[in-house]
Design goal:
The chain has one domain. The protein is mostly helical and about 60 residues long. The longest helix has 15 residues, at about 50-64. It has 2 helices and no strands. Helices cover about 40% and strands about 0% of the residues.
């Protein structure tokens, strides 16, 4: 008997449903804010300025 046999499946996550609908949408002005992925107009994922600053702080702490 598997330990997972007693686990009951949950309904699908609605956020992932929105992400699926976003991918199918042909609107060129659409903006994906569903799963926390930030992409520029070229669909590249840029590192947010706040993340870059946090990386600098953490690097300095590790270095000292």
């Amino acid at each position: 008997m598997s330990i997972f046999e007693a686990v009951k499946p949950l309904p699908p996550d609605p956020i992932f449903g929105l992400a699926h609908r976003f991918k199918k949408d042909k609107n060129p002005n659409k903006v994906d804010l569903t799963v926390g992925i930030f992409r520029n107009e070229n669909l590249s994922t840029d590192t947010l300025r706040a993340v870059k600053e946090a990386e600098k702080v953490l690097f300095k702490i590790e270095k000292d």
